[in-house]
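Margin note: ligand = adenosine-5'-triphosphate.
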Amino acid sequence: MNQESTAQAGEARRPAGKREVLGLVLPIFFLHRRRLALGLIALIAVDFLQLIIPHLLKIGVDGLANGTATTNHLLAIGGLILLIAIFVAIFRFAWRYLIIGFSRLLERSLRNRIFSHILTLDRSFFERRTTGDIMAHASNDLLAVQMACGMGLVAAVDALVMSCAAIGFMVHIHLRLTLLALLPMPLLALCTRLLSARLHQRFNVVQEQFSLLTEFVRTTLVSIRLVKAYTMEDLQERGFEQLGRDYVHSNIRVATIQGLLFPIAGLVGNMGMLLVLYFGGRLVIAGRISLGDFVAFVTYLYMLVWPMMAIGWVTNLAQRGMTSLGRIHELLSAAPRLQNRVPEKRLHAAVPGFRLRDLSFAYPATTHPALRHVSLDIGPGILGLTGRTGSGKSTLCKLLARLYPVPDGCLFFAGSDVNSLPLDAVRSRIGYVGQETVLFSDTVAVNIAMGRPDACRAEIEAAARQAAIHNEILQFPEGYETLIGERGVKLSGGQRQRLALARALLCRRPVLIIDDALSALDVETEYAVIVALRQGLRGKTVLIVSQRIKLLSETDEIVIMEQGTVVDRGGHAELFQRNALYRLMHEKQLHEPGARINSGTTGQAAPSSRQGIHA
Ligand SMILES: Nc1ncnc2c1ncn2[C@@H]1O[C@H](COP(=O)(O)OP(=O)(O)OP(=O)(O)O)[C@@H](O)[C@H]1O
Ligand SMILES: [Mg+2]
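Resulting structure:
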């Protein structure tokens, strides 16, 4: 079974069970058990302290009713209530700090796990899912889990303790009155449950609208030059306006539900109060309970409104948290298609080369092969690779750089099947400069030293010299410390390409793959680069993809590809003689300024271009 089939089998997993999903967070709960325990103790302490207040009120009111209350007596009760309020404030701070802090720690731990897992995934994954989608899911789902484990936990414990204790005290005062007062409460829990489910749905829509809005701004800003060049400002503005309108509309729908929730809670609370006033009042008149008991009862009843609302809210939070945790679990279970099957195998060759045997390849989710039966040996020296656009050159480079999986027995590196070698061992020996330049919004020096952050300035400069960009960097306002702007917007296309080349050169890896990464250079600069490379990379394995005959003529050998296969291989002069496509390319490029191409054997003095064709 090859790598791909193993991984694909891994992807078609059954949905994870509750236990598996909870397994993601339970160890984090266990890790912070002390913090959680202290937080919960503080939370319960707040509840009990609050429950003492009605009791103190009862003593005060009874004293007033009996005429036994003195000013000192009342002051003492007031002082006690103040003291309790101070403790409540301290414990409230403590539980917030400890439990909400815990939920943030949990969020951080999950976020780190997601991020490092995403880093292990390969290109096939990122071709299936967009960046915006991954970002939105990761952030919204993390938020839902954090809410469930923070405020959800607090509300659940609070509701349980508070309602049990308040009901307990109420029963202690009068059982039948308690049952009467509680009659409307299940209605409140039901209403909250129904409304918060709606609220949740509408809130999801708000989140989606928000991701759409941010994604729209992001793509507009990224392609701002295109927007201006095609005078699309009006179109973009209208699109943005529409998205903004949808966003506000969905927010108003959320506000409608929120607006309903609190009045309903108030109404139900007051319905209970009505019953207590009538029946409780009669009990006081009949002398069955004291006036103080009555006041305490009313206060306990008010204290019950929040726990009843919390029951509905908590069940929703818990459901959302579980769903989100399930999605995070799914993301974390996505396996890279490229896997290290054999973790340890040593690479011996100092200058490794590649051997390709009957290698065919189709991109994931496509059926048309991008490479067909390619057999090729690539050893030390500079090998040029050319062919029409879409002929499979970049695909070949990406497979060599181990960016996609290959079947067993088709690609050998330093004499071993690549599938039997650790991925890192192969990748760390290959310098790869892709067709699209990737730069970071940082300084020139940091961009060059990306692959080797430990490199000193002299090494960075040497690499830049080899990539023929050193002199231009010195002209920048702050030399190597110049900020190049987002994705290198402050640089020309050719400068960006040479910066990427300098980055690969600095890594000094034995194999270098340059995929059409000099295309934006003028012929003279390109020539200067290739001459510098010839000297600097002597004895290494170098593969350069190019359409430029002038550059190709400076390589040791040239491979021509067509429709995913290798159709010819030879020296510049040889190919010029026998390959029609190569001759055509040669002729087309003759008229480019500075195109003095050597059509004889490599190393010979370049004759004039016209002479070259007929040589
Ligand atoms: N990520 C991808 N997913 C699906 N198909 C792809 C992908 N990348 C390339 N292809 C297809 O594979 C074929 C070979 O593409 P490749 O990029 O290797 O061509 P190329 O020779 O490098 O062309 P160019 O000279 O324009 O860079 C093309 O038909 C292309 O459409
Ligand atoms: Mg290409």
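The radius of gyration is 36 Å.
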